[in-house]
Amino acid sequence: MVHVECVAENESGYNFKWEYESEKSVSLITTDYSAWGTTPTGRYRNALDCISALPLQADLFSQATGVAPLFAYCRRQNIDVGKNWEIILIGVGETPLKPQLGGFLWFSEPQAITLTEIKASLDLKLKSLGALLADVIIHYNTVMGAGTTAIHYFAPQRIEFSLERVVQVPSQANCFQALEEAKEFLQPEEKALFITYCGKSTFGAFDLHLGFVGKPSTRIQTAAQSFSSLSECESQRAVIVKEHSGSKLARVLGGLCSKDTYSGKYTVILFKKPYE
Length: 276
Hints:
This protein folds into 3 domains: 1-94, no CATH class; 96-216, no CATH class; 218-276. 22% of the residues lie in helices and 41% in strands.
């Protein structure tokens, strides 16, 4: 490196340039995701929290990439969100594991599950794929009843994350019952599944959500029959699941009753796994 110069100071932090001489181009390894898309890149509500987290994140960067960061600092995003301070780490070198950013949308407020549990599930799933989790940040809008989860991780390439709202029922008890059934028939079969949880929607209903790391193999299909109440749907659910179990194209793992948002009727949601 030949020269490093701070060229400007603003409310977001500092702008600097660095000049160097090299016989070949230099590969930058960076956590600057400013041009990556719509996933929020901020992690902290204020500069103090960001600075406090900087040493741990720098250590994770070195552990994952094998490269010590040349620059490690906090930067404030010029947008009005709750968590708008982000950590910027920049290193130079070649590494199989690169800093990545992904995430998914929340459709309702999670019930009976903590951020610690979400992180632990993601950590295990990413490790099984040869990746390393750095951080999970939830940006939740209590007014809209929805939000975004930003997943900071290290991997050779970007990994697909998704969250699907598969069932809607009138009470939390109904949702927890559906959750336990879904876990029983999905967890042994769906390798991409990392989280199942019930969420309370802004309309008072409760939704069952499934979160995936990578592309899920399970396909979801709505049965043709509809019912005026949840109890009526439940009384016919086993019959409908059995009717769809004879397909030679896919195996039916299970079925759950759900309210259709538009018609207000209840239908059976079928979970199918194509034969390999």
